[in-house]
Amino acid sequence: MNTMKKHSVAAAVWKAVKYIIMIGFAIMCLYPLFWLFLASFKTNQELYYNTWGLPEVWRADNYINAVVKGGIMKYFANSVIIAVASVLVTAVLATMASYGISRMRWKLSKTVYGIFLLGMMIPVYAMVIPLFSIFKNMGILNTHLSVILPQIATGFPMAIFIITGFMQSVPREMEEAVMIDGGSIYACFFRVILPITKSSVVTVAVVQFINVWNDLLLPRIFLTDDSKMTLPVGLTNFQAQYSTDYVSEIAAVIITIVPSIIVYIFLHKYIMEGMVAGAVKG
């Protein structure tokens, strides 16, 4: 009896310790964002003498400066165009390619899968010079397409890896039942496979969106016109022009990170399912 009590007490203590550690880690992750949010409503003077407190007056002047002076919304629109196009093309093509690799029986399926995975080993930095030369000859430098195409290419291997791993765990009997009922391969894909693999497709879309949204390298190299730059590039330009207006810079940072946070908040359930479902079912 005493042994059981000791065991239950030890389990309760360990559970409390785990919760304390997780709460502490959550505070470490969230507090910087909370501090940035508060600081974006302060003046530069208040930022120094009231660094950690609430703003004395909640003012939107800093956001107005970021939008009007810094032209943040122009960069915001460019980021939306590039991110949405990259995500849609990557998710659609990767889903169809993964279906062909994982569900169809053909000799070179494993070889093709391995070739796709080799793309995960090639850093984007190694592709910059040849891509610049290719895009220059094609005449698409300084266009959104010159950023969208590399984003799709770099996101494709990871997307194939995640979606193919999930599709391989789906029982073939489900497709065979559709075939017996007279369904085609397209019916198997749209009626069986696609609904089941929704969480993995959403995972790919969210990861790709965050990577494209936060990318600084490709827009900086392939775009030269300021009107076509993305948010990370616009943020660095804004910082260079208004290097002493710290609170306006913070407001611009908040505008930059909000979309990624919103996307993750609404789709985090599917992200977790997509990451673990294949391993659990396998």
Describe the structure.
With 282 residues, this protein is an all-alpha fold. It folds into 2 domains: 2-39; 69-281, MetI-like (MetI-like fold, Orthogonal Bundle). Helix content is 78%, strand content 0%. It contains 13 helices and no strands. It has helices at 2-39, 44-49, 61-68, 72-103, 109-118, 128-138, 145-167, 172-180, 185-196, 198-214, 217-222, 231-241, 246-281. The chain is flat, with a radius of gyration of 24 Å. Residues 278-282 have low confidence and may be disordered.
Structural descriptors:
mainly alpha, MetI-like fold, 2 domains, 13 helices
Short description:
With 282 residues, the protein is an all-alpha fold. The protein has 13 helices and no strands. The two termini are 41 Å apart.
Order of helices and strands: HHHHHHHHHHHHH
User: Could you give me the name of the CATH homologous superfamily of the largest domain?
Assistant: MetI-like
Shape: flat
Derived from helix and strand composition plus strand pairing, the structural class reads mainly alpha
- Second CATH tier, the architecture of the largest domain: Orthogonal Bundle
User: What's the β-strand tally?
Assistant: 0
Instruction: From the alpha carbons, calculate the radius of gyration and give it in angstroms.
Output: 24 Å
CATH class term of the largest domain = Mainly Alpha
Helical amount among residues, as a percent range? Answer: over 70%
Assembly level:
single chain
Q: Output the number of helix runs.
A: 13
The main pleated sheet reads as: none
Number of domains as seen in the coordinates:
2
CATH topology of the largest domain: MetI-like fold
- Please state the average pLDDT score: 85
N-end to C-end Cα span = 41 Å
Uncertain residue segments: 278-282
Q: Beta fraction of the residues? A: under 5%
